[in-house]
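The material for today's practical consists of a large collection of protein records. Backbone structure tokens are a discrete shorthand for how the chain folds in space. An example says more than a description, so a record of this kind follows:
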Amino acid sequence: MRFDQLQNWLDWQLQLHPTAIDMGLTRVSRVADRLEIGSSAFKHSASTVITVAGTNGKGSCVKTLEALLITSGKTVGSFTSPHIVRYNERIRLNGDQVSDHQLCQAFEDIDQAREGDSLTYFEFSTLAALLIFKQAKVDFILLEVGLGGRLDSTNIIDTDLAIVTSVDIDHCEYLGNDRESIGREKAGIFRSGVPAIVADANMPLSVRAYADDIGAELLCIDEQFRYSTANKRFHWSCLPGASYSEFEVICEQPRLPLPSIAAALMALTVLSVLPTQEQVSGVLANIELTGRLQSVEIDGIEFVLDVAHNPAAAESLAQSIDEHDSRECYAICAMMADKDIDAVIQPLVNKVDHWFLPNLPDNDRSLPSSVLSSKVKSLDETAALQEFDSIVEAMDSVRQQCVHLTDKPVVYVFGSFFTVEAALNYLQIDVQ
């Protein structure tokens, strides 16, 4: 074996390929075929594959699918990215992270099958997931697209059901500068004759056009299924005239993105594996995902951790604040320099009472807190804000300022996966 420690494998993978992102399926498909985990291999397996793309909400959709399928007694392999704290988060069997040993063995098998083909870090993770899932003979394989869809390495597998959770502006250098271009890239996971579920109520025309061109069975929110909320209750149903059961779900409103949950419910309805009303209600009432409106209390102060880092995610976060919080609102925010900073901050300007802006000193991509401070100030001249050298200093300051208050604020921590990772480490919370 090339390495016997997981971290050594990961360090090596980061250096192997000349670019971190190399869109295309040719190299990874060749290696997959040598490992007998290419699309032809899965066509003859008993596993049902669900592929999930989208600008936001992919991880929440996969988490919902996973929880509901496990409740139904199905075995499930889930592949998601990026991880927040540990690489093992990316690959789960029946909800549990795979071990270092399983990953090292999968990487060794992939390395032996490369035959000189160079692979990216993400391509290694995709192949490892497929290899582990095939060996485990799971009933369902859930694949979260890493970037786009059409040229993402997860798309080497012909899916049995495709989901697009949302289409918004992000990763323009790879996917295009408008929603129509980005939508076409995400629709690339669709297959002829296969159900394709779209949870974006403002679906780009390019998505429908591509589905029509290839003959995918397009199922859209507000056309074939819908959800609504009232008095903190969630109601989901197929619409009259849909060719599927008019099963209804009524339960306590979950904290995960509701379009993603609606898409997951439709997917399992289509596949005839949706659990009972009682089981669904129980799952949705308790479902949570690390870094997605994750609530943690310390010193009587509620910290809400969210990986929101693009404009659409920030809009969703602002909506959640409106729906769930009447308390004073603090924000700890650190972002990457390559993001649309103004468009992320703007929806939250009138929601946040005090900004705490830390540096991420160990991250070369991060935006200096002084620059972010200027951005916030340009959008809100009266903003109360403080700058810090690290997340640790920002979290300490919030605690010191709030611990003796009778009416404590809620503190939202957001801006990137790295921001949430630093907060989790500070709070000493492990990712399950």
Remarks:
- The longest helix spans residues 121-136.
- The longest strand covers residues 48-53.
- The chain has a mean pLDDT of 93.
- Residues 6-286 form a domain with the UDP-N-acetylmuramoyl-L-alanine:D-glutamate ligase fold (CATH 3.40.1190.10).
